[in-house]
Design brief:
By secondary structure, the chain is of the alpha/beta class. It has a single domain (2-341), classed as Histone deacetylase domain (Arginase, Chain A). 35% of the residues lie in helices and 14% in strands. A hairpin with a 2-residue loop joins strand 2 and strand 3. The radius of gyration is 18 Å and the shape is globular. The protein binds N-{4-[(3-aminopropyl)amino]butyl}acetamide (Q9C) and zinc ion. Zinc ion binds next to loops.
Length: 342
């Protein structure tokens, strides 16, 4: 399997985040992608290609144009305002406030275009976001050109980013961009299978009223887990999209047996949908030693995930999302891919 990777991800680094009242180094750090890249090499998964550069047309097919146009301006606006630390959102237009008037202040705009403080900018962030998008589209092109599968080693991740907001370490929704791109290239139906520990709220929101893109999520129950405000089992799609969004919220402590039951049901519903292509939002934060998650999958489980996806017999695009146990992230992510290859 070919991997697409860009070193530009590394400019998005040094962020801090708030955990239990303390400002600590962010979990979504550059070493994540480097460890996975090294494992791709040591496991001889296949060649590692640089992405082709794309314009932002494909991004604007799933995101609001004003949101996409805002992203490259964040750091220049932040610097022009005389600020130097990372640009972190801090005020949000929640219920009772005006969410329809974008202010002119950069701090305010960060809140206007986000749902949490988990997606922050440093100088190299836009170039990293853009490279991650290019990685996803380039890997999608490989699948469209006839590869059985390809691995988009995206960083930053994407599945929490909605049509007009960032959050949860995500800016552009790489998997959603790829899914829509396959549609625009002639696919009739596309399935997105999101196995990251966290609910892919952005992907769900983007495709919620659509019957042509099935979105399936296995994740920590939002009653107790981030992103908290989406991902319940009764969210099944709206209008023409009714029945094409499937959520499998699972409790803390879920290990392979129960997780696999959900995967099996998900794969049967995916197969019944009979898509032309499947986009896998590949998070490995379901791992027992993940520092921010509460599932109990072991390294031996990840090849089984890949093998089950392979049994679908569909062209498959793997798009990297989360996973924060840096020592094992390469073993687990590449384990899915070698399991797929059989
Ligand atoms: N600092 C992905 O896995 N947790 N995003 C915040 C408080 C946010 C995870 C905890 C988790 C986001 C792509
Ligand atoms: Zn996650």
């Amino acid at each position: 399997m070919k991997t697409v990777f860009s070193p530009l991800h590394a400019g998005h680094g040094g962020q801090m985040e708030l955990v239990a009242g303390a400002i600590v180094p962010g979990f979504e750090k550059p070493s994540r992608a480097e460890i996975i890249r090294k494992r791709v090499e040591s496991e001889k998964l296949g060649p590692i290609l640089a992405p082709e550069i794309h314009d932002l047309t494909a991004a604007k097919r799933v995101h609001a144009a004003d949101y996409i146009d805002f992203l490259p301006t964040v750091w220049p606006q932040w610097e022009a305002a005389g600020k130097s630390g990372s640009a972190i959102p801090f005020a949000w237009p929640t219920r009772g406030l005006r969410g329809d008037v974008p202010p002119r202040n950069i701090e305010a705009l960060l809140g206007f275009y986000s749902f949490d403080g988990g997606a922050s900018f440093v100088k190299g962030t836009w170039d990293a976001i853009k490279s991650s998008y290019d990685v996803a589209l380039t890997a999608a092109q490989l699948v469209k050109a006839g590869e059985r599968a390809a691995f988009a080693l995206c960083r930053p991740p994407g599945h929490h980013a909605g049509a007009a907001f960032m959050g949860g370490y995500c800016f552009i929704n790489n998997a959603a961009v790829a899914a829509q791109w396959f549609r625009d290239q002639g696919a009739t139906r596309v399935a997105v299978l999101d196995v990251d520990y966290h609910h892919g709220n952005g992907t769900q929101e983007i495709f919620y009223d659509r019957p042509d893109i099935q979105v399936i999520n296995l994740h920590g129950d939002p009653m107790t887990e981030y992103p908290f405000f989406l991902g319940h089992a009764d969210e099944r799609g709206a209008g023409a999209g009714e029945g094409f969004n499937l959520n499998y919220p699972l409790p803390f402590g879920t290990s392979w047996a129960k997780w696999n039951e959900a995967l099996e049901d998900a794969c049967q519903k995916l197969a019944a949908y009979a898509p032309d292509v499947v986009v896998v939002s590949l998070g490995v934060d379901t791992f027992e030693k993940d520092p921010i998650s509460q599932f109990k999958l072991t390294s031996a489980d990840y090849p089984k995930i890949g093998a089950r996806i392979a049994r679908l017999g569909l062209p498959s695009l793997f798009v990297m999302e989360g996973g924060y146990a840096v020592d094992e992230i390469g073993i687990n992510a590449v384990g899915v891919l070698t399991g797929f290859e059989g």
